[in-house]
Amino acid sequence: MPFVERERCPGCGAAGPSNAVTLLKTRFSDGAVGDFIRRFYNFDPSGLEGFYQADCCLRCGLIFQRHIGDAEMMRYIYSDLVTDDPPDKIPTFQADIRDWKGSRDGHELMALSSFLDKPKLKVLDYGTGWGLWPIIASKLGHDAYATELAQDRSAWVSTQGVAMISDDEISNHRFDVINLEQVLEHVPEPAKLLERLTRSLGGILKLSLPDAGRARNILASMMSGESRYEKIMPVQPLEHINSFSRRTLLDLASRLGLREAKPSLRDLYSFIPGGIPSAPRRIAKEMIRPFWTWRNPSNLYVWLIRDSMISASSQRPLSTQRRHYALPFLALMTKTRKRHEWLSGSEWPITDHPNWLADRPDSGPISPFKWLGGSRFWIERTPRTLAAPTTGIQP
Ligand SMILES: [Zn+2]
User: Fold this and answer.
1) Are residues 58 and 118 in the same domain?
2) If you measure from the C-alpha of residue 387 to the centroid of ligand 1, how many angstroms do you get, rounded to a whole number?
3) Is residue 150 situated within a structural domain?
4) Do 236 and 265 reside in the same domain of the chain?
5) 61 pLDDT band (50/70/90 cuts)?
6) Would you say residue 309 lies in a domain?
7) Which of 91, 134, 245, 379 has the most neighbouring CB atoms within 10 Å?
């Protein structure tokens, strides 16, 4: 089956094989990659042309699979190899629809509404699947739009109060929130997609995707035979073709004129009292979720906002994020995360980076990290020895 080679880095557009180093290259039927495909998809990969080739861009640091399925192959992967149950067979889907005010997606939408200080949002869920997120948005009274390539899903979601639009129609709209839930790791041109969506963005672009900060270690373990899904998920053959770390994701965002926005605790708990779930187990989950979502070591969760918006509007700027770090146990969780990144050494491919580890500048409010001994683990995110492109995406 046919594969195409991505000649440019899909994160920054750097061209040519000399702009990237190959971290792992193997036939789809060989070694850990072959074991994984046979077991996970129940599919014999010996007929697949091309290679599983994980490259790391020397300009932007993105790790990406060089060979990806062509349009026909992608359709085969996502319609035949990947199968999922319809919504009436998914218990969690049904539970969330029944208790939408107490659901994860409901609470996320309430936090977005509180952060943007807008009771009625116009939202887009890009690649919505069975549409849980926009259906709940619609139940909350927001104007919900979604895109979905699979015809059967799109047709069903359109009967649930969600306006289905095509990719080409997105540019006719301006959205308060654009949601990309487990999408960016799958698309052939992630930077171009974000650039296009940013043109229709009037508020928050929410991204949630596997954290590939340890991708190099994972690829090394695959060379010695590791093929379990839970271990190799961020670099999953055939599907997770772009493996972003937090750093490469935020670098891409900054090239698009976006920066990270973090809601306050008040925003995150704005579901209280009206959105308390009905089941006790769900209550416990939802009370912890605002912390866990932003700190989950295996998933990147980011809200992005235009540079120009954060200062020019009444939205509270980034300084609000420090307030919820003031809780000591949160600071401990953060420290653990930073330490994890530091110890794995896999955030950035250039290991002799002079500014790679640096103390946080002593500006702003007193940081609890100091007395927790955390300064050692601060990773200064801005300096680079390699200049990242400053504007836009390369053609
Ligand atoms: Zn790149």
Assistant:
1) no
2) 11
3) yes
4) yes
5) very high
6) yes
7) 134
Per-residue model confidence as pLDDT tens digits over 261-305: 988 889 999 998 888 888 888 888 888 988 889 889 899 999 999
Of 288, 322, 356, the domain-final residue: 322
Residue 64 C-alpha from the chain's centroid = 15
* Confidence (pLDDT) at 167: 94
In the reported structure, the alpha carbon of residue 57 is separated from the centroid of ligand 1 by a whole-number distance in angstroms of 5
How much is the pLDDT for 347? 40
Tell me which residue has tokens 């991505």.
6
Q: Give residue 16's domain range.
A: 3-81
Q: Which residue has the tokens 């994860």?
A: 104
Q: 279: CA distance to ligand 1 center in Å?
A: 46
Closest CA to 181 of 124, 254, 226, 143: 124
Give start and end residues of each alpha helix (H) in the chain. Answer: 31-41, 71-76, 91-98, 104-116, 132-139, 151-157, 190-198, 215-223, 229-232, 246-255, 265-268, 280-295, 307-312, 320-325, 328-344, 368-371
Asked whether the predicted pLDDT for residue 319 surpasses 60, the reply is no
Q: What's the total number of domains in the chain?
A: 2
Do residues 93 and 188 both lie within one domain?
A: yes
Q: What is the 154 CA–ligand 1 centroid distance (Å)?
A: 33
Q: What is the mean pLDDT of the chain?
A: 81
The CATH number for 120's domain is 3.40.50.150
So what's the pLDDT on residue 360? Answer: 34
Cα 67 to ligand 1 centre (Å): 15
- Return d(Cα 171, Cα 72) in angstroms, integer: 26
- How many C-alpha atoms does 308 have within 13 Å on its Cβ side? 5
81, 98, 116: which is the final residue of a domain?
81
- Expressed in angstroms and rounded, the spacing between residue 55 Cα and the centre of ligand 1 is 10
Query: For residue 391, how far is its CA from the centre of ligand 1 (angstroms)?
Result: 13
Nearest-10 crossing angle of helices 215-223, 31-41: 100
The answer on 112 and 7 residing in a single domain is no
Give residue 16's Cα distance to chain centre. 26
C-beta of residue 190 within 8 angstroms of C-beta of residue 212: no
**What is the 288 CA–ligand 1 centroid distance (Å)?**
36
Residue 363 lies in a domain: no
